[in-house]
Amino acid sequence: MLEVILKGHDKFYGVSDVVRMFCGVPEEVKEHGRVIAPEGPDILLINELFEDGRSVTYSPEKEYEFDGELLEPGREIKRSLYMALSDITSKKMPWGCLTGIRPTLVACEEDSPAALEEKYFVRPDKAQLAFETSREEQKILSLVPENNLCIYIGIPFCPSRCEYCSFVSSDISCHMDRLKNYEAALEREIKTVASSINRPISAIYIGGGTPTVLEEKEFSSLLDSVYSNLKISPECEVTVEAGRPDTITDGKLISMREHGITRICINPQTMRSETLARLGRKHSAEDTVRVYRQASEMGFGLINMDLIAGLPYENAEEHVESTRRLIELAPANITVHTLYKKRRAAMSREKVMDIEMARGRLDDSVAASYALLKEAGYHPYYMYRQKDTGHGLENTGFAKGDTGNLYNVAMMSDCRDVLSFGAGGMSKRCFAQEGEQYKHRVERCPTIKDALTYIERVDEMAEKKISFFEMQG
Ligand code: SF4
Question: Is residue 393 part of a domain?
Fold first, then answer.
């Protein structure tokens, strides 16, 4: 059992995040100032922060301290602990001691990938990825004026539930009756809030769940409501997550075209039908190809396709083969996710982590996918990490030319306000801070997660959002 005693600070999150990378989910015993990892090596470590900003992690036998320029205290304590655990376990992490979800934020502060390697022990390929992506993100973000809004509209229903799913989505087969009421409530919320918040909009993302799970009539009605209530300029980016190919019909594609939507996501996750069936998705790889071709022929020029690396029931080669097949289709964007585990998913954390450990090749397959994408003319344009991804890896969006998705970049940046409609959405206001170029102070306003309660309390949700956006920084 690993035990880390915190001395001179109380940064439990930082310590836990580093311990988690090496030793599984730890327990924070705050009253005794320690973090315990039952699966870790048998050792007691002291993680100390001194008044002069130095941090040393030490065992009875050895001390670990970085010899160089000091980082801010939160990063410094993680760095010395990382040095200790990396040495004790003989493991190195691809992202070194960076534990946050946005490594590109740290990369923005540096003037070369080498600085990420030296200061944070980031592996050279990941340092290069973060550096390159951070510059691309800044370029895209500059297209969204500070006062402009990004809008999220959530439909938390799906035709069935994927085994790995972590979202607040409901299986529509059990909740058919709710869908119509939900859609009506959503339209009501959009109408009420939109009449009070009068700001230009740069990007709209209709996501979920799977918005195309709505019947054609309801789907078209939702788009009518979006286009009639929100002030959508011709430059505004509007994306529809048409995630599951089994929910996409001619009628829905026509409706999107008629409303002016050009950007859609068709997400296969894997191009192996056997894996899809075992995961509980009700479509095959052939369905994906058919729907993709149908959408392309109708003139949808900006299509994103998501893949997941590290899925159970398939090996590393099969993931790379899926990437190859998507490249052949040539969508504008391909996003490579790494399987991760959140509390709500049916798949256990152990299963997610075991898959990766047993195989030990997830890292290689992700690298091989990236290499194929680069060779095919795609470049990374946004990136984020999630806790408990296999091997601490990342999710990366790749784009051809200037086709990167504005909404994704702006939302992840925490530098632009997001107004969110629908159950489970998170609105946020981002306030610039003096002396901070890339980091804003963020205030959040959550919407109730449960769809049924959302329907009942939609007016209250709308009022709450209106007040939130009236708030002065
Ligand atoms: S399609 Fe997406 S949101 Fe729906 S169940 Fe599958 S992973 Fe979850």
Answer: yes
